[in-house]
Design a protein that fits this description.
Number of helices: 5
Mean pLDDT: 78
Low-confidence stretches: 213-225, 244-248
Strand order of the largest sheet: 1-5-12
Strand content: 25-35%
Order of helices and strands: EHHEHHEEEEEEEEHEE
Helix content: 10-25%
Distance between the termini: 10 Å
Radius of gyration: 25 Å
Length: 248
C-alpha cells in the first residue's frame, strides 16, 4: 500500500495521468510481471518510448523494476509494487493534546477471557495462583498482574468512554507491550494476534518469536524478581483513523 499523506505527495500520482501508463499497470496486474520487450510488444510501442513511462511509474513507487540475467544478457522485469493507494485529503492538525483523551489500563484489568495452557499471570513480585490453570484468570488478584500469557484464546477489556456527549472521535490509538514466547516453555514461538473493537475485527498481526534473542538489550522484563519469570516484549502502536479517506 502506498500512503499519500499530503497534497504535495499526491502530485506523484500524476504518473497515472496517461492512458499508456494505466495500461502498463493493467498488464502487470494481469500477468504479475513482464519484461520490457513483452510490455512494448503488448502495448504496440517501441522500447525507447516505453522507457520514460516506466521510469515515472518507478519513481513514484507504483512499480518496481528488477534486472535479471539470462543466457542472452540482462533484462528488466517490471512488477506492480503496491496493491492499494491510500490518500489523506486534508492534513491532520496538531492540537497539542488539548483534544485528546488518554487512559491507562493494567494488563490484568480484563473483563472477560477464554485461555488455554500454557498460561498464567504474574505481578513483579509473585506468580498469581498456579501456572497453567485458567481458573486463576478469574481470581481477584489478577488486577495486580504485570504480565499475562496463554497459548490460545482471548482477553477482553472494557475501555471507558468519558468523552462529552456528541463528541466526535477522529482517531483511536492503542499502545501495547507484546511478546511471543512462553516463559520456561518455548522461547521462539511466533503468534497471530487479532485486535477487535466492539466485535469488529480490525486486523491480525504476527508477533515474531525469539524476541528475547534479538532484542535482549531493549527488553521489558519482569525478571530479576521472586517470580523467576522473564519475558521480552516490544511496544506496538495500533492507530485507527475514523476520518474520511480515499481508497483507490
Amino acid at each position: 500500500m502506498l500512503h499519500i499523506k499530503s497534497v504535495e505527495e499526491g502530485l506523484k500520482i500524476v504518473a497515472l495521468g496517461s492512458e499508456l501508463r494505466i495500461n502498463i499497470i493493467k498488464l502487470l496486474i494481469e500477468h504479475t510481471e513482464l519484461n520490457m520487450n513483452e510490455l512494448a510488444s503488448s502495448l504496440g510501442v517501441t522500447n525507447g518510448a516505453l522507457t520514460s513511462h516506466i521510469k515515472k511509474l518507478e519513481d513514484c513507487g507504483l512499480i518496481c523494476v528488477i534486472s535479471e540475467h539470462n543466457g542472452h544478457g540482462n533484462q528488466k522485469i517490471c512488477r506492480v509494487n503496491v496493491d492499494k493507494l491510500l490518500v489523506d485529503i486534508a492534513p491532520k492538525q496538531s492540537d497539542d493534546g488539548k483534544n485528546t483523551y488518554t487512559t491507562d489500563i493494567k494488563v490484568g484489568y480484563f473483563t472477560d477471557y477464554e485461555v488455554l495452557p500454557t498460561c498464567g499471570l504474574a505481578s513483579s513480585q509473585a506468580i498469581i495462583g498456579e501456572v497453567d490453570d485458567p481458573r486463576y484468570f478469574a481470581h481477584p488478584d489478577r488486577y495486580q498482574a504485570d504480565i499475562v500469557w496463554f497459548t490460545k484464546g482471548y482477553i477482553e477489556y472494557v475501555i471507558p468512554n468519558l468523552l462529552p456527549p456528541l463528541q466526535k472521535i477522529d482517531q483511536i490509538t492503542f499502545s501495547v507491550e507484546i511478546g511471543s514466547e512462553a516463559p520456561g516453555i518455548n522461547n521462539d514461538w511466533p503468534s497471530d494476534i487479532t485486535i477487535s473493537i466492539n466485535n469488529v475485527e480490525l486486523g491480525t498481526w504476527t508477533s515474531p518469536g525469539g524476541i528475547s534473542v534479538m532484542f535482549q538489550e531493549f527488553s521489558h522484563q519482569t525478571g530479576g524478581s521472586p517470580t523467576g519469570i522473564s519475558m521480552v516484549c516490544l511496544r506496538w502502536l495500533w492507530s485507527i483513523s475514523l476520518e474520511p479517506l480515499l481508497m483507490v
